[in-house]
Amino acid sequence: MACHLFHRGAWSLQISRTSNRLSVSFSTALPRRHRTNDLPTSSTRLPSNLSSTHHPLSTPLRAFSTSDSSHQDATSKSPVQDPATLTSGFNDSPLILDEGSRQIDWSRSFHGLSTEAFSKDSAAILLAPVDPADVEIKPDGIIYLPEIKYRRILNRAFGPGGWGLAPRGETIVTAKAVTREYALVALGRLVSVARGEQDYFSPEGIPTAAEGCKSNALLRCCKDLGVASELWDPRFIRGFMKERAKEVWVEHVVTKKKKKIFLRKEDAVVYPFKETKNTAGVF
Prior knowledge:
Elements: E1 2-8, E2 11-17, E3 22-28, E4 45-46, H1 58-61, H2 68-75, H3 120-126, E5 136-137, E6 143-144, H4 147-158, E7 163-167, E8 172-173, E9 177-186, E10 189-199, H5 206-222, H6 234-244, E11 245-252, E12 258-264, E13 273-275
Antiparallel strand pairs: 1-2, 2-3, 3-4, 5-6, 7-9, 8-9, 9-10, 11-12, 11-13
């Protein structure tokens, strides 16, 4: 006899199977929406010829089969939902306020947008030229400012607590990425709206990708304030790469594959790469 026990939240489901009989036991601590005799009790036994599509527990039972191969497939599946089906989001839509509420519903409102300019002191901080020492280079040659430095600029301009990111919709998870729309609010006024995105490589990385998605939205919102605007200026990019970047050949220490990467001139190649020469004629 094979016995399987499932737990989720406040309920548990036990399924016992023999060669000619299937026994199901279900228990829960939550208030029941059905009559007692509508749910299976600990002694309920289902006839072997009963189709799973005619029973309330058809979804859990559908994974089991009388063949050993299909039983092994069902028990070997990961408890994490297939990321390809995670397209309906986290069900974390912003709270919708009543129309008569005095609070501003930042999930829909454009309150304060372009009503007046910020103070000269705040503008000077936001529009200050980017410090080349703060600019980083990705291996593919893309230059960027780390997201923590955008937060520091906003803290200097508006003060800690004087700005924030308000979600404008639900977090959407696709097979490879997380995306969500955010609004940047400063001193009680809407400044900008942008959609962030972040790739992930396994379901366990979705929480980290959700945080990266928020930071990506912040970066995009800051463009409307003129923060680090040089990073989108082609002439600045070409000059920066010429003066402060270098291109080197590296070899992956595990796969032994070679490729070219970009670095700041003062930076060294780090693991998992090591600097090498293009002796194999790879271009």
